[in-house]
Fold this protein.
Amino acid sequence: MDPTSLEQLRRKVEAGEPLTDAELEALRSAAQGTPGPTLRLTVAHALVNMGAEREALPLLETLRRDFPREVQVRLGLARALLGLERPGDAEAVLREALTLNPGDPEALKVLAVLALRRSEHARARAYVKEVLERDPFDEEARLLQAELEAADMPPPPAPRLQALRPEFTATLLATLHRAGVACRRQGNALLVKLASGEVGRVDVASLYAAYRDGAQELGPYVEGLVAQLQGLSGPGLDVRALESRLRPVLRPTGFEAQAQGALHQPGPAGLEVFYVLEDAELLRYLPAAALGPAGLSAETVDGWAWRNLEASPAPVRPVVLDEGQVVLAESFSGLWAVAGGDGYDAARLLTREQRGRLVLHAGEEPLRVHLGRRELALVCRESDGPASDSLARLGASPDGIAGLFRLDASGLNRL
């Protein structure tokens, strides 16, 4: 075999690539007529690459006998023994290699791997440290060091067992009753009697979602909620806090039956505008009876709420619909979501700042609007037939607003 072809075979073996039968025979022939262990050792490694460790083992044992001072033979023998699941014998051979060449990095790294397998982390760290002291840039040793550091980290906490929503609701109601807070269920809402005699409404779905996304156990979390709800049962409203916390929300006609006593007035497209106090977990509608004692008018409250919402526009994100689910898209899709995720997105469509943001994405033309998800508002260009059809096919969730709407310069109108 010519030197160039032989060198190509050697490099292939060193890279761990299996040889063809013809290549292996050519390598064997070249090794038979060459003195020294190098080519015969290459044949052994080629056999190991092909999964033939049992065939390689006698050749390696012969090489160890014939070349007792050759470290690379010991390393090749250890490799074959490991392939045969004989780690104890491989470790003994590696120690022979270290006797011949103290500090040999290849032997130390394999010994570190064996120690790591047996969870002997201190011994593995010592082997890796010795390699890195000689060569701080040894990539394999650095990877082993990272693996050891990860193994030394404490195990992650056991996953929290989350209560299902019926258990969550039952626990919340029982805890409220024990605390003396007058309350009752009304659909998806929880009605809490205020000190004024009026009723505050909180959304059970919002409470459960916050519990599910958090880290607390059910008992402590519900106790904290009850403390908050007891706070809602206290004296009248803080006017200064009210001015900054009010937000408007759009609800379908007839919603006042679910939010008894809540302040509301007619909105666009046959919808109604209610007013809520901004809170990350609780949804509390402003009672109409609270305005008189606070010296407020409905017009003042309405102005505060819309001013606050105008100052907090939501991002506009491209989305796609995947089997009834709204999924964020990486690029233009023809559908957009006003995605504040706080329940105010339908009302945001009526603010100047949010309309300006929509124009940047969809242009000045009329938009088709879907408000069937309370946590976001979906829009597309009215001229985009496929996108409009996809919105028409998308149903509404129980707490959303059914039907489609048109948003243009005149405002929001029902189709």
